[in-house]
Write a structure and sequence with these properties.
This protein is an alpha+beta fold and 146 residues long. The chain has a single domain, classed as Ribosomal Protein L22, Chain A (Alpha-Beta Complex), CATH 3.90.470.10. It is 51% helix and 29% strand. It has 7 helices and 3 strands; from the N terminus they run βααααββααα. Strands 1-3-2 form a 3-stranded antiparallel beta sheet. β2 and β3 form a beta hairpin. α2 runs antiparallel to α3. The longest helix is centred in the C-terminal third of the chain and has 20 residues. It starts with a strand and ends with a helix. The mean pLDDT is 83.
């Protein structure tokens, strides 16, 4: 489930502060923390998360705790260049920066299954692990005795 917001009129540096608070959290906790945050970037990030949840389907809206923010990126958009008049007829450049926000959500259960499938230690039985540790300890004791 992915969603993005293009050309948001705030600098990426300010938006990344809010994005770092949300990254890796469950969706229900992320939405509640964004609701009480006083930064102005909280509202658009909240709307992008809600858009990603709605793209997941109708049952996803009911089970917000099953999803988490897998990835959130804040990229730099175009920079609008303006000038401020200064002393003696000179001009000072003003850069109005824009941001692109992209979010991808993932299912908690699915991610755990994928991690467990890739982990070789999980695939072994616990008895095998215990036997392996005991045999290594026995080898160390034998080497010390010799």
């Amino acid at each position: 489930m992915k969603a993005s917001l293009k050309n948001y009129h705030q600098s990426p540096r300010k938006v990344r502060l809010v994005a770092d608070l949300v990254r890796g959290k469950r969706v229900d906790r992320a939405l509640s923390s964004l609701a009480f945050l006083t930064k102005s970037a909280a509202l658009p990030i909240k709307s992008v998360i809600e858009a990603a949840v709605s793209s997941a389907g109708s049952d996803a809206r009911q089970r917000l705790d099953h999803y988490f923010v897998k990835e959130i990126r804040v990229d730099e958009g175009v920079t609008l260049k303006r000038h401020m008049p200064r002393a003696r007829g000179s001009a000072f450049p003003i850069r109005k920066r824009l941001s692109h926000i992209s979010i991808s959500l993932a299912d908690n259960n699915r991610e755990q299954i994928l991690r467990q499938a890739q982990d070789p230690e999980f695939n072994r039985g616990t008895n095998n692990n215990l036997q392996q540790v005991e045999s290594e300890e026995n080898k160390e004791v034998d080497s010390i005795r010799r």
